[in-house]
User: Fold these one by one.
Assistant:
Number 1:
Amino acid sequence: MTDGAQRAPVRSPAQAARDGMVLGLAVGASGLAFGAAAVGSGLTVAQACVLSLLAYTGASQFALAGAIAGGGSLIAGVAGAVLLGSRNGLYGLRLAGLLGARGARRILAAHAITDESTAMALAQADPAAARAAFRGTFLSLYLTWNLATLAGALGAGRVGSPTSFGLDVVGPAAFLALLWPRLREGRTERGVALAGAVIALAATPFCPPGLPVVLAASAALAAALRPARPRPAGGQPA
């Protein structure tokens, strides 16, 4: 595979923003599941909506609702949610230079960082398209997620279990679809993916929810610290 074949497809900023908006609409629908789960765990409709507005990180919100529903303390639930959301800080380090946000806009950009907005931004071939994809994903996902949270919370007692509709797998499936082209690029990418999966699976029986995902990121760190191997003549990857 040549270097050119490994590069992300070139999209205009408008196309990138549109793709991000489509993804945001699809993933945001899973807010129905969170709204219903939050009310089912004992939160009020208002508390569920405020959590989506201010926390805006689905996995952490589900972890908090699950901890409360399981009888855990609020402190334990918040600690688990913060731990799970800590990966967004790593995303922020990667995106800081790409987004170029300054001043108060950095706060908004930090709030907009999710798995989906990060993946859409990094999938673009140029900075302008990356910023457009990031904004498009955030705007559609934030709006849809919060509206869906409200709808799920209001209808929690009427729609039954949200998992029966398969909404709980929308986010992971969409994220996997974004990652799949990267996994086809070379041995390093596949090695990182495999190592991360092994770490997460090994840690799951022994760690609280969220920590296995954070630990899995060490696979990418190990690959980044590994000395680069020179490529042979002709542009083929080593």
Number 2:
Amino acid sequence: MIDIPVYDIQGNQVDTLKVDENLLGGTVKHGLLKQAYVRIHANQRQGTAATKNRARTEGSTKKLYKQKHTGNARRGSIRTNIMKGGGRAHGKVPHSWRQDMPTKMRRLANRNAVLAKAVDSEIKIIDSLATFDKPSTKAFSNFLAALKIDRSVLFALASTLSPAAKSAANLDQVTITRIDQINVFDLLNHRYLLADKASFQSWIDRAAQQLAPDTASDQNTAQGTDQKESV
């Protein structure tokens, strides 16, 4: 079990949240994290970059001058890539950079990224955000200072329309997201993960529910294999 400290609004530890590391993958799987990170990064590319080749460049296709007896190099279309204003050789064309990954791997990577943050003590859990009854950037900035958060932080909570979320909206080092939308890319791009206890516990419960059908399916598959071998 991993013990994640829970703090109050003044930055004092008031509780400890125990999380089973097996639920998060057991150990930090660096290869899986990199594959998932690269996939999300690649899927964000539009793939619309394009340059004009000879076929797309304006200009006559007429031979500039006759082949022989001019003393000049042989020359064809003015749209050749070695002429000024000509087409681009081996230029970029619209291309899809999308990568796919099985659902089980994606979910495991997201959980494993949380494990990596927990191992490095980079998860900050707050017992309650009820004190933020109205938006206040100054109050939230003081709250981060009390938690000793001096680097980039991913603020994950149930709703991005809450007063606490609006309080953090004007801080450059804070990125706001919903707790059910955290992923490898956002987690690894920020030093800290900040969440309230209720939201983080709901994410843990949801991860356990997602893992339960996979475990049952693997057990059924193993039982079916054993029956075939016995037959």
Number 3:
Amino acid sequence: MAAGRIEIGFSGGQVVAVRMTDDKVKDLRQALDRADGWFDIQTEDGEIALDLRQVVFLRGAPGEHRIGFTG
């Protein structure tokens, strides 16, 4: 399954951009519904432990920026 890029925003203004599969994003959204402490997510860059009580938004990030022309 292909990974997409999402941004996770935290209270205080910090934002982390990660690449995750759709299934992993769905798992994260379900965990946020419970928002009961810490949740480990697996990204293409490694594992991240999130304090769910500090997450204020998830955003699907735009595609990667490319320089040049499309054919």
Number 4:
Amino acid sequence: MARLSHWYGRLLDALLLLACLLLLIMTLLIGADVLLRNIGLGGIAPSNEISEDIIYLLTLLAAPGLLRQGQHIRVDIVLRALPAKVGWLLEWLSDILGAICCLYFVWYGWRVVEASFKSGALSIKTLIMPEWWLLAPMPLTFVLLGVEFFFRMHRLALSERRPRDDAVSAA
């Protein structure tokens, strides 16, 4: 299990690196668009649309890795105020609920992607592309998030009976 978790972590690190590269591309694209508009060359017409799509992809690519690193949004003040074992049980509850939500979003997301594909829906803005291209990463991301919740539960089962120490808001 440790070896599988290690390789899964490497995959998530690669997705985080890809998200960073996309952020760099978006930054360069916006900078080039502004520069070209200011010197009178008209700019890059699809830059806003591409930037919107990149922000969406950044969120999806980074989410599983951030969850793994404990860098997700987390309100832990209650966990720290409760007895350690109760906090540990609430960690279990949140991981189980997280996994269930991920399974639902995989199912729902797949249905949306499939419906978009079958209908031939197009995203028509400056660029024209099949809508399902934009929708497909969502269920895939929730598969990765769901897998990470299972790894979190495995780590929690092996840990001391107290709340996790990742992403603690107060010492």
